[in-house]
Amino acid sequence: MKTNHMIMMVIFYLLQVGFTINAQSQLSNITAISPEGRYSTPIWSPDGQKLLITNQYYTSLYIIDLTNNNSLNRIKKGKGIGYLANWSPDGRSVVFREKQEGSFSKNLKIKSLHLETNKETILNDVHPDNTNPSMQARSGKNLMVYINSETLKLEAKEGLNGKPWVITKENGQFYHPVVSPNQKFVAVHEGPNIYIYSIYGNEKRKLLGVGIATSWLSDSSGIITFEDKSNDGHVISASDLYHISKDSSIKTNLTIATDDIVATWGDVSPDGKRIAFSDEKTGRIFIADLIIKN
């Protein structure tokens, strides 16, 4: 009886801090859809039929066509273009950041590449931290959530010339913001920690634990993260994907049963039913059915 009491106390503590395993949330039908290589960071197209991916050095962009035997085609190469690359709202173009030779990141050009014509267009109304114009198009606000390069605070504004406001009132250096599909919340990082902020409100920020947030669920109810480990400080030796509920902070290991996969960079499909992710061990891209029950 004493042992059972101790177990219940531990479970209660884990529930309080949000680090629990929710057995009802899981991945199934995990399938490799690329050959072995150095592929990474898959992003679903708006129609859920293709994946935009890069390599582990962010120097190339590829598309995997899930409706055409998972055909893999390289569409563009260049220094750093794979980092934060995304899709246009209609899925006919991809958006990427182009570094100018010898320039700092604040002088990045944001471009779109039309997949049929190969025509490149400079996008002046897209922020380098917010290269997902699909959400901006849905809201009609052209919301930009970004890191101020001088203060390292998280800011937001509506439209390129809109008046900015500061989201992160706390002291700290913030990085890698990920905006929710409903554009009400943003996950942002400070050191190893992930915080959720309300973009427009004054609610107190919420700590969701450690890791790297990579994607929101399609209904904005939670985020997908990964936590990697390295034995030598250079090569990732282990990593798992997690789901963290925005409201309850309950944390679920989605890849606990996949010891042979070093899972990183999970992205949820537009319909919320599937997830794509990278395997750092083989350099392959996987997709799986996603079941989330809070």
Proportion in helices: under 10%
Q: What value does the average pLDDT take?
A: 86
The number of helical runs is: 2
For the CA atoms, what is the radius of gyration? Answer: 19 Å
Query: Shape from CA axes?
Result: globular
Tell me the fraction of residues in β-strands, as a range.
Answer: 35-45%
Distance between the termini: 30 Å
Structural class by SSE content: mainly beta
Describe the fold and architecture.
The protein has 294 residues and is mainly beta. The protein is 8% helix and 45% strand. It has 2 helices and 23 strands. Strands 1-23-22-21 form a 4-stranded antiparallel beta sheet, with no helix packed on it. It has a 4-stranded antiparallel beta sheet with strand order 2-3-4-5, with no helix packed on it. Strands 6-7-8-9 form a 4-stranded antiparallel beta sheet, with no helix packed on it. A hairpin with a 5-residue loop joins strand 13 and strand 14. It is globular, with a radius of gyration of 19 Å. The N terminus is likely disordered.
